[in-house]
Task: inverse folding
């Protein structure tokens, strides 16, 4: 179910922003420049806009298991940019959080001070 700049997943009920933070949906793809943010800023600005960072499981759920590079459904989310995206999941360390690569679906734990892409979600 897709409407404008948001996509609703019928299975989970989650509503996703089609584009990473800083980009805009033009009706068929994401345009503009992505705005990378560190984890603290990403969490704060998402909450101020009535969104949140997805959990690791939620973000991994966007990956098309039959696709790679990009692993995201381009009909729903347009083209790129591809790179590391923050999740709200930490790895047991106050300094690190889980990230998922939007192109390959790889998972890593990175320091929260690094500016990365942000894809917002809400229930």
Result:
């Amino acid at each position: 179910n897709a409407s404008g700049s948001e996509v609703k997943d019928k299975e989970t009920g989650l509503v996703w922003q089609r584009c990473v933070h800083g980009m805009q949906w033009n009706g068929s793809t994401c345009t503009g420049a992505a705005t990378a943010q560190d984890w603290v800023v990403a969490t704060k600005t998402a909450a101020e806009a009535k969104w949140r960072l997805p959990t690791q499981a939620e973000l991994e759920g966007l990956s098309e298991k039959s696709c790679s590079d990009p692993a995201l459904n381009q009909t729903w989310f347009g083209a790129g940019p591809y790179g590391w995206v923050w999740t709200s999941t930490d790895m047991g360390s106050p300094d690190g959080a889980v990230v998922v690569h939007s192109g390959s679906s790889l998972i890593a734990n990175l320091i929260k001070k690094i500016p990365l892409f942000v894809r917002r979600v809400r229930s």
Remarks:
- DSSP finds three helices and nine strands in the chain.
- Helices lie at 39-48, 56-60, 74-77.
- The chain has a mean pLDDT of 87.
